[in-house]
Amino acid sequence: MKPTRIRSTAAAATSVLAMLALATACNRESPGSAASGGDKSAIGIDLPRSDSDFWNSYAQYVKNGIKTDGINALPLSNSQNDVTKLVANVQVFQNTGAKAVVMAPQDTGAVASTLETLASKKIPVVSVDTRPDKGAVYMVVRADNRAYGTKACEFLGKQLGGQGKVAEFQGALDSINGRDRSQAFAECMKTKFPDIKVFELPTDWKGDVASAKLQSLLAQHPDLNGIYLQAGGVFLQPTLALLEQKGLLKPAGQEGHISIVSNDGIPQEFDAIRKGQIDATVSQPADLYAKYALYYAKAAAEGKTFQPGATDHGSTIIKLPNGLEDQLPAPLVTKDNVDDTTLWGNNLG
User: Which residues pair with 96 in a beta bridge?
Assistant: First the structure.
């Protein structure tokens, strides 16, 4: 009997260790607000990163939405801009009974096999902000990122009177968002403002990379008079710090001011607009991303379906080769409307 007890004890210990490993896998955190569950379908939610003010705001809205909407969320995970962590986090969701998954893959090409796996398990996926290149998605919750690039181009081009030199901090070009914003900005500048010289600076969404490249560019082109930040959440502070260090952070309306247009709509961008440090941003709706990510995940888990067309929340659902996309509105914010109380950046907290 003694060997039997040893084997049983070892088996029990192995089981406990496996459960502990599962519970602590890949940067997982308890939202502290997950619904008690009951008969509600479980939803797995992976946050994409925590090095951006925009994504930290989105995470806050997600956690609030879990509470207020009574979502039965599994412990949240954060893949930290690492597709291998995303794959591991999704595996945990599968193992713990997720009936739908919310993710925001930063590498929209590398996630295809993960989507295929989830589809084979009949677990629908809601992708936030980014549109996977391949693999089935139930719904993409995203604003029109080409419109971001076009709006930034049109505003900046008019500010500069169609003349000058512009630095463009491009997001990662392996991301649909980086490609959409870059392509639309380039096409608009070429067509509408051919006398503006654009310096495309790939950054992989990294603020330190953007700052280093801007410093080199300013050394070669001290007459630079415009900057387009494709993501204020990672680029704003490094850019303002460098310009201030070099004595180039002149307020709007003053001689020598460098016109800056950003993307995100975070409170820090609004403050910079009020101070005249930057001129505009496109408000990417972090609040609506969270709201409708949870809405569609819950609907997916319940087996509901949607069709292309206008929605009841001021957006349009379009058909993709691999699913549907709800294109949410993203307004341009300038000094004229920066205090609009309907903007999420004025209501955070």
Answer: none
Alpha-carbon gap, residue 331 to 191, rounded angstroms: 23
Beta strands in the chain (DSSP E): 28-29, 43-47, 76-78, 100-103, 125-128, 139-143, 164-170, 196-202, 226-229, 259-264, 280-283, 309-310, 316-320, 323-328, 332-333
Phi-psi bin for 45: left (phi > 0), alpha (psi -120 to 50), beta? Answer: beta
Q: How far is CA 84 from CA 81, 123, 171, 244, in A?
A: 9, 19, 20, 38
Average predicted confidence (pLDDT) for the chain: 90
What's the rounded Cα separation, in Å, for the pair 104 and 130?
6
Range with lowest mean pLDDT among 19-28, 152-161, 236-245: 19-28
Nearest to 58 by CA among 4, 25, 11, 104: 104
Residue 201's beta-bridge partner residues? Answer: 169
Q: What is the mean pLDDT of residues 75-91?
A: 96
**To 10 degrees, the CA torsion angle through 304, 310, 314, 317?**
60
User: Residue 30: is it exposed, middle or buried by C-beta count within 10 angstroms (0-12/13-18/19+)?
Assistant: exposed
Give residue 28's pLDDT. 58
**pTM surpassing 0.85?**
no
Closest CA to 337 of 142, 112, 155: 155
